[in-house]
Amino acid sequence: APNGSDTNTGNRQSPFATIERAQAAARSAVQRESVTVLVHSVAYRLKSPLRFTREDSAAMGLVTYKAQKMETPVLSGGQPVTIFLPHSGKVLKTELGPQGITNSQPP
Hints:
This protein is α/β, with parallel strands linked by helices. The protein has 1 helix and 7 strands. It has one helix spanning 19-29, and strands spanning 35-39, 43-45, 57-58, 61-67, 74-76, 85-88, 91-93. The strands form 3 sheets. A 3-stranded mixed sheet has the order 1-4-3, covered by helices on one side. Strand 3 (57-58) and strand 4 (61-67) form a beta hairpin.
């Protein structure tokens, strides 16, 4: 959630900030009951792929991820490129390393 913190409890009044933290809490809770993770209208920038495994379900329940009512969350593995320099005419260029992007190849 935009006002969340990963040290919060993860409920509606005290939401988590990241999908990764919500997934970890859901994996723990699904051992006892089904869980619904409500995701808010935020651009969640993922540093690594969000992977779903057997840990995301259990004999006691399922984990469901859904958008908060009337909201449109975005999960993105992309990184913003914000610094561009003139190159030739209307063409711009950039250097990724100084912007913290060290691997532009997919895994």
